[in-house]
Amino acid sequence: MSEPTPIAQEAEQWFAGHWDPTRPLGEWWRDLADSGFAFPQWPEGFGGRSLGRRDAKAVQQARRAAGAYGPPNGVATFLVAPTLLTMGSPEQQQRYLPGIVDGTTPWCQLFSEPSAGSDMASLGTRAVRDGDEWRVDGQKVWNSGAHYADFGILIARTDPELPKHRGVTYFLIDMRQPGVDVRPLREMTGDAAFNEVFFTDARVHDDDRVGAQGDGWRVAMATLSFERDPSNAGLGDTAAFYEADLSVAVGEHARAEAAAADGFSIAMAGRAGEVFQGAMECGDSSGAVMRDRLARLAAERAVMSWSSHRGTASMKAGRQPGPEVATLKIGGAETGRQTRDIGLEALGAAGMLWGDDVPDGGLFHRYAMFTPASSIAGGSDEVLRNSIGERVLGLPREPDEAERRETPWNELRRS
Ligand SMILES: Cc1cc2nc3c(=O)[nH]c(=O)nc-3n(C[C@H](O)[C@H](O)[C@H](O)COP(=O)(O)OP(=O)(O)OC[C@H]3O[C@@H](n4cnc5c(N)ncnc54)[C@H](O)[C@@H]3O)c2cc1C
Known about the structure:
4-stranded mixed β-sheet
């Protein structure tokens, strides 16, 4: 066995000296961020130490070996932070990143609209310049965590006379203002994790514009590339960023999180393996056909994991992932569906139940109900296949779309 590296030794000592499940969650997250072991790949001062992937993994292993709870996880850490680190101004980084790495500021993503999901560039929410501010009017939808977010990343149309991709600008908007109305939506999992958001004369200061006016599509594409990247350094193994009570003891919080089984949290926190294992133990996986399917699933997962590491290794520090990362997202959605189908089959008739009397406490059922979401959120499988065809393989665009890309937005036919 090879000797632990100096950074692995330092992390081991740090976690041995600092991890204490009786400490308040907020205090633990602040300490973790200050140590640079919260997000080791990010720069110093922003929860990290600019470590490479291998060293960052060693830090994570040291944390897990100590049984220590992980850093905050959510839209703020895996979408907002990497976008600000690559595209935000130094002032925006200083203003917003500290509250992200210590878990005190929840964020949401305000991209999709009722008539602009896959065709996001058609969006109609307007931002009009008014002195040093922008006035925002319109509607977004499917916004995860908007009901407790303090801020949102918003794309809005600032120039309707330009073609749809060119007249869009990217903002950081305060969600706690009178012009923002958040209405929760309930999903088939039973949870209400996402919302509709209405803007009526909401305000954003021009200092909170990311990138130039009209350059918002490029910034939004960076955010989406982070969303589609399963090796994103801001994706953690906790599910706790949402509605976390920072005063509660961190150990107590971790126990409550494990029991809560929120469908969305499970998917986000990479707990699928553990939940699947639970279903297999409750069910019957002894048949030859089942064993064959399990072997195939294991092989596909191994290929996915290998490809994901290769993807990260080939990525230069500080750069956003390319369009090819979509293959990993499609692969993840596919193995998710297989996991769901095998688990439900193993559970047999019990797989059809719902409620408190389900064998594994209903954990796997909620995972199963959430599974279709991974083929939709962050770009549907079909749309990602189009993107791979056009942007990776260089195939021609659909003829209509080529023309629509050059038509001013206010002349486009919209539903
Ligand atoms: C769990 C979850 C969380 C989400 N969280 C957020 C969030 O926080 N913030 C946010 O802004 N959005 C969020 N979304 C929204 C998500 O980004 C959209 O649902 C997604 O982009 C698809 O858009 P749509 O729902 O409008 O479907 P549509 O665009 O109406 O698509 C409907 C169907 O048509 C297919 N389709 C559409 N266009 C094409 C095409 N050109 N070629 C082939 N097929 C096509 C699609 O693949 C899909 O099957 C979330 C979604 C889910 C499921």
